[in-house]
Amino acid sequence: MKLITFKHNDISRVGAVVDNEVVDGLGVKNIPQTMLQFLAAGSDALDALQVLINSQQARIPLDEVKLLVPVPRPGKFLGIGLNYADHIAETTLEKPEYPTFFSKESSCVIADGDAIHLPKVSEKLDYEVELAFVIGQRCRHVPLEKAHQVIAGYTIVNDVTVRDWQFRTPTWIIGKSFDTHGPMGPWIVTADEITDPHNLNLKTWVDNELRQSSNTRYMIFNIYQMIAYLSQAMTLEPGDVIATGTPSGVGVKMKPRGYMKAGQVVTIEIENIGRLSNHVINEPDGFVVA
Fold it and tell me: pLDDT tens digits, residue range 145-155?
C-alpha cells in the first residue's frame, strides 16, 4: 500500500495511491485524517483503508490532488552519517564504531515537487539519496530480531546539506536543517510490500546527470541494528522518520564540486518505492522581525 498525505478541495487528509488514482479516506470510520494519527491507530486504520481500496470507491484522479509530505511534521527526523562503505572511502574518514546519528529539524521537510532553496548564506548545497523508514508503533528496547515489527513502511529522503554550515559544529544539525532541505516522499510504501529493505537500488540525478548509483546492501549498520540501537536510548513513536545514510557520489566530493544550483532539478529513485523530484531556486526574501 502507498500511504499519502494529500490536499484536495483545500482539505488535507490521508489516503492511498492505486495506479493513477487516490483512494480518499475522508470521513471514513477508523481512518484518521493525519498521518501521525493514522500510524498510531495501527491495524485498525490500515484494515479500514484496505477495505476502502477493495471497494473501488472514493477515487480521485492522482493529477487532481496535491501530494504533501507523507509525514508533515515527524516527531523525530533522524539521519545517520557515514553508513555506506563507498561514501566513507570518498570522504577519507574512519569507519564509525557506533552508528552516528544526527537530527534534521522537522521544519525542513517539503514534498515531492516543492522547491529546494539555495541559501542566501552559502553556495555549497548538496544532495544525498537516502532510504528512510517510518516507525509504526511506540517502542523501547527493541530486540534486533523484532525490529522489523515496528516499521510502518519506507519512503525516500533527500538529505539536502549545506556543507560549510554542516561542519561548523560536530553535531551537523544546522547544516542539515535549513528550511526546505528535507524533501520526503512521495509516499510511504508499507513494510509488507518491501521484501528486503537491504537490497534496493537507489539513484540520484541532477538534471539528466546520474550522480549516485548504489544498493542498500552496502549499508554498514542495517535498519534493524539502527532500531535496536536507538531504542536503547529513546522511545520511538509512530511517524518518527529515520534516514539510513547515503552512498558515494555526493557533490562535495566531485572534481569540480557538484553542488546544486538554482534552476537545476534533483531526482531520487529507490527501487520498489518510486521517485522524489525537486527543483532548486534561489532562496526568496523572507520575513524579518525588527
Answer: 999 999 999 99
